[in-house]
Amino acid sequence: MTGAQVFHAADRHLKPAVTETGTTMIAREIGTPLSRHMGAGIEVLDGVTIDWTVTYDEVLFIHSGRLTVEFDGTRHDCAPGDIVWLPKGTSLRYIAEGRAEYFYALYPVDWAARQGVEEP
């Protein structure tokens, strides 16, 4: 574990996150090397639809673009400044007709290791 840090946008490296229904780009800024509890980063979707079930608690803060999130039979059109709460077990669909970027924070940081899977 390390102390407080600043993550500058100019230093950010987005890497592909491949799922069964599409690919996004993600920068996992806060992970197990830094925290035993929380994960956080930036994810970018561009002209993609992703079906996903969160197996952790997650909060999204829409930073830029427009993102549609479908869950519980309802479409939620999100714009910059909107916040989305996704409790563990939520099945949803992310729809980005253009480029959308959001900050995410999740708990627990080691959700994939706990389930014996690899993060996309």
Automatic annotation (TrEMBL):
Give the matching InterPro entries. Answer: EutQ (IPR010424), RmlC-like_jellyroll (IPR014710), RmlC_Cupin_sf (IPR011051)
Q: Which domain of life is it from?
A: Bacteria
* Signal peptide span: none
Tell me which Pfam families the record gives: EutQ (PF06249)
User: What protein does this entry describe?
Assistant: AraC family ligand binding domain-containing protein
The uppermost taxa in this organism's lineage are:
Bacteria, Pseudomonadati, Pseudomonadota, Alphaproteobacteria, Rhodobacterales
